Amino acid sequence: MRIVxxxxxxxxxxxxxxxxxxxxGLLAIGGDLSAPRLLAAYQRGIFPWYSPGEAILWWSPDPxxxxxxxxxxxxxxxxxxxRGNPFRITLNHNFSAVIAACAExxxxxxxxxxxxxxxxxxxxxxxxAHSVEVWQGEQLVxxxxxxxxxxxxxxxxxxxxxxxxSKCALMAFCQxxxxxxxxxxxxxxxNAHTSxxxxxxxxxxxxxxxxxxxxxxxxxxxxxxxxxxxPQQVEPPSPTN
Length: 241
What we know:
- By secondary structure, the chain is an alpha+beta fold.
- It folds into 2 domains: about 60 residues, Leucyl/phenylalanyl-tRNA-protein transferase, N-terminal domain (Alpha-Beta Plaits); about 160 residues, Aminopeptidase, CATH 3.40.630.70.
- The protein has 7 helices and 12 strands.
- Strands 11-5-10-9-8-7-6-12 form an 8-stranded mixed beta sheet, sandwiched between helices. A 4-stranded mixed beta sheet has the order 1-2-4-3, covered by helices on one side.
- The protein is globular, with a radius of gyration of 17 Å.
- About 40% of the residues are buried.
- The mean pLDDT is about 95.
- It is found in: Cytoplasm.
- Pfam families: Leu_Phe_trans.
- Functions in the N-end rule pathway of protein degradation where it conjugates Leu, Phe and, less efficiently, Met from aminoacyl-tRNAs to the N-termini of proteins containing an N-terminal arginine or lysine.
């Protein structure tokens, strides 16, 4: 297999099944971060990830890390933390501040460069990308952002400036998203942080099947209106299946 170079004259992507095994999921190179191309990628289970100043790389890893909202896990220590209700959590109140803060994390590199920030801000302005903000007083201390695909949400990045802030962002979003009929959150690649919160791996083929079904589901517009999110329930609802 070889990496496909994208045409500047077409939004077509190769099949995710053609992605490399090493590095896992690398599928294509080139193209741009225009809104139509980004949306075409997400609709096919593909996302960009690359270093600023280098060619854009497009990925679709196998297996895929996902979080079913009703499977979210709250440790005993995190439940104790939540009972103190230390944060105020909002949706779509300051997308640009959230993505800028995600770009500042020194331990994870600087892949969210200015080009990426501009591209996702445009997706936000078009109503496709959304942010969760965690506030301590008037200070932004955590958050996350991603791209909606019907009843599936493609999580892109999160940040914390104080203990448990990104956890609170994700858990509050799970509760909100599920309440409006959201069924699956794409975490891309499993890591220790998301694994502790209930994320798990599924085969790419299964993920693509879920994506094809869930992206056709339309959630109520109220789901994405700027709003305060209710406090996270200490006990998540029991799975129905």
